[in-house]
Amino acid sequence: MLEIRNLTVAIDDVEVLADIDLTLPEGELHVLLGPNGSGKSSLLATILGLPPYRIVAGEILFDGAPIQSLPLEARARLGIGLAYQRPPSLEGVTLRSFAAAIGAEDRLETEAAALDLTAFLGRDMNVGFSGGEIKRWEVLKLVLQDPRLLLFDEPESGVDLEHVIAVGEAIAHAVRSPDREGRTCSGLVITHTGLILNHVKADRAHIMKDGRILHSGDPQALFAHIQTDGYSVPA
Amino acid sequence: MTIRTQDKAQLSNEERDILHDVGFDDPSARAATSVLADREMRMALSNDLGVEILPLSEALRTYDFVQDLMFGLVSPDENEHIAMVAEHMHDPLGHFVWVKPGAKVRLPVQCFTLLETPQGRQFTHDVTLIDEGAEVEMISGAAVPGSVHKGRHISISESYMRKGASCSSVTIEHWGAAMDVYSYGYAHLEEGARRRSTAIMMAPLAHHLSRSHTILAADTNAVSQAIVFAPEGTERVIETETHLAGEGARSEDVARMVSVGGRIVNSAMLVGDAAGTNGFLGCDGLKLSDTGEIMAVPSLRARAEGAMLSHEASVGMIDSDKLDYLMATGLDEDTARNLIVTGFLRLDHGAIPAGVRMRVVEMIDQAKSGGM
Ligand SMILES: Nc1ncnc2c1ncn2[C@@H]1O[C@H](COP(=O)(O)OP(=O)(O)O)[C@@H](O)[C@H]1O
Ligand SMILES: [Mg+2]
């Protein structure tokens, strides 16, 4: 579904991603691991086409076609969606009016209930939300958007223990079940804590460091390795 | 049951349509209705024993005390416009609304002004008395037919809220695109009175000066919001002055302004005259084009120790992060912008009728595409 080849990305003239190769087959869920500042968020933002990232070299293929010159909303319409790490707040735009704008009103109540956000439907998007509430909303937003390639940027950080299961299950369900047109989905999840691995069975993990993919392999094994040896290549 | 009717001529369908856009509903669905057209009170009727609504000239003859209310909050020589209205007032034009002591008025009271003659000159004076412990909701509006784009309207309104009275109001105006309008509003809230008001100033006009002066006695609570829009060719100057005059008075005054090429000046002054008062001023401006101007001038004046006054002001373009965030969900740029602008104006919240909300969205759309 997603294929990234030799991707090098800069902000102004500073390189933030170097020579990234990553293949995410249809139906798979991968996790991205890596220290702060290693380029994980930059990678997801580049896939979606958010500023200020500039592709210096390489290409991004979605369903076999290059997308790097498509504008943001065109990529979103192809079925790429991102749960932000730090979304902006939208004063006066309620969850309900947003859901109406994307045509997901009919599913809002049920999906919100699954993430314990029923009481938030009249609230303005991300305004005054706690860290964990933002994460739950971002997951709900993606569920409503119903993309085929789901990108999650640290969806569980800041989420309390009571809700982390719901977030994990919502991610698992969103990625593992087909979209509303019956097409198979794929997911790429950035995680620090690895908590998410208890709820979603990932197929593969990638360790990022200094803007590069250092190593890829079995998620459980790599996470265990990181916990003892840090973000390094396993022996 | 009709308490008093002044129904010289039925409103035409066209008139009803125009008024509908600014909040009019059939008089049978309202506690009381007044409609002033050009220089005539066309309708003044009440279905509720708790509300009396009369042409001001008649009220002056009927009730002694009305002459003390008229020019009770502002002097007739306050400024040149007010003097002009006062001079014109051999037979004053405008309404007197009286909500009786203790009345809990179930349906809204509605009051409208129409200017139907091109190049018309209209000078009005309204007096509103919400008596002790009374509760009421008010809808007022001003409009012109499509054929009128030039003219001048000057209005004075004086509102008295007696002890413990409560009022929520919405005002919507839709003047002609080349008109000059001057509105002067004065209000006095006695002890424990509560007021919540929304003013919608959206339709284009050449120049609008809106000046208001409010005195808040002890333990009053006043919340006001203004939703202001200026397309190319429109200039709106809004000046408000609020006095927290008695202990425990609270006020919150928020203006949200959008310019698409027009000019908006908002000067808001909050004065803490008494201790134990609390006031907030908010002025937020959003500029949707490179031309035009928004100027926000909030000022705070604490004259007593223990007056807590604060303000927030911001003026800017649409934040590209917010736009991207919405477009990243597949929304096109126009839809994303509209969501941000209507959100900024809080059109979803509060007392704005659905029909008005739709029209506001259309108006912003038209202005952006230069069709205005
Ligand atoms: N808008 C930006 N402007 C300048 N530098 C940025 C910007 N966004 C990210 N960076 C830098 O790019 C590097 C990678 O950041 P990021 O992708 O957010 O890392 P991660 O998500 O792995 O913590 C960091 O050094 C960060 O400071
Ligand atoms: Mg990050």
UniProtKB/TrEMBL annotation, chain A:
InterPro entries: AAA+_ATPase, ABC_transporter-like_ATP-bd, FeS-cluster_ATPase_SufC, P-loop_NTPase. The keyword ATP-binding applies. The keyword ATP-binding applies. It holds the Pfam family ABC_tran. Residues 2-235 form the ABC transporter domain. Keywords: ATP-binding, Nucleotide-binding. GO terms for molecular function: ATP binding; ATP hydrolysis activity. It comes from the Bacteria. Belongs to the ABC transporter superfamily. Ycf16 family. This is ABC transporter ATP-binding protein. It comes from Rhodophyticola porphyridii.
From TrEMBL, chain B:
GO terms for biological process: iron-sulfur cluster assembly. Residues 119-344 form the SUF system FeS cluster assembly SufBD core domain. Belongs to the iron-sulfur cluster assembly SufBD family. PANTHER family: FES CLUSTER ASSEMBLY PROTEIN SUF, UPF0051 PROTEIN ABCI8, CHLOROPLASTIC-RELATED. This is SUF system FeS cluster assembly SufBD core domain-containing protein. The lineage of its organism: Bacteria, Pseudomonadati, Pseudomonadota, Alphaproteobacteria, Rhodobacterales.
